[in-house]
Amino acid sequence: MKNLIVYTFLLLFLSCGINEESKPSKTAQIVAESFYQGDETTLKEYTTEEGYANFKILIAMFAKSKNTDSDFKVLEETVEGQVAWVKYSTSYDKTPGIFKLLNENGVWKVTARRPGEKLPF
What pLDDT band is residue 12 in, cutting at 50, 70 and 90? Predict the structure, then answer.
């Protein structure tokens, strides 16, 4: 009985440790919204160095969106170890986007895709 109580508390503790922001899809939403809103501070926090460098170049070419409602929707998501892929749509763009994410020390961050890199969907 004592072991059952210990395991129950352990399971409860571990399940509480997994928050919504540690999911690849939540990170993808934060990055998409911060990109179109021109929020470079948030963008830098949720991207790898390589990913941020690419976004910084692109952000200068796009005008900030006046629409604050992104209507972010996850179309597909797949996780393969420390790499995740999220296909999403937003009200900012008619074409669905795809993010590649890496798990760095338990935090999902959007990174740059390589030219010709095979997508899982």
Answer: very low
CA-to-CA separations, 64 to 87, 89, 92, in angstroms, rounded: 22, 17, 10
Q: Which two tokens stand for residue 14?
A: 């571990």
Q: Give dist(CA 53, CA 75) in Å, integer.
A: 26
Q: Residue 105, by phi and psi: left (phi above 0), alpha (psi -120 to 50) or beta? A: left
What the block records as the tokens of 87 is 């296909």
The mean predicted confidence, pLDDT, of the chain is 85
Angle at 43 between CA 86 and CA 98, to 5 degrees: 20
Quick one: which of 68, 40, 67, 38 has its CA closest to 52?
40
3-state DSSP helix/strand/coil % of the chain, to nearest 5 = 45, 30, 30
Which helix (H) or strand (E) is 53 found in, with range? helix 49-61
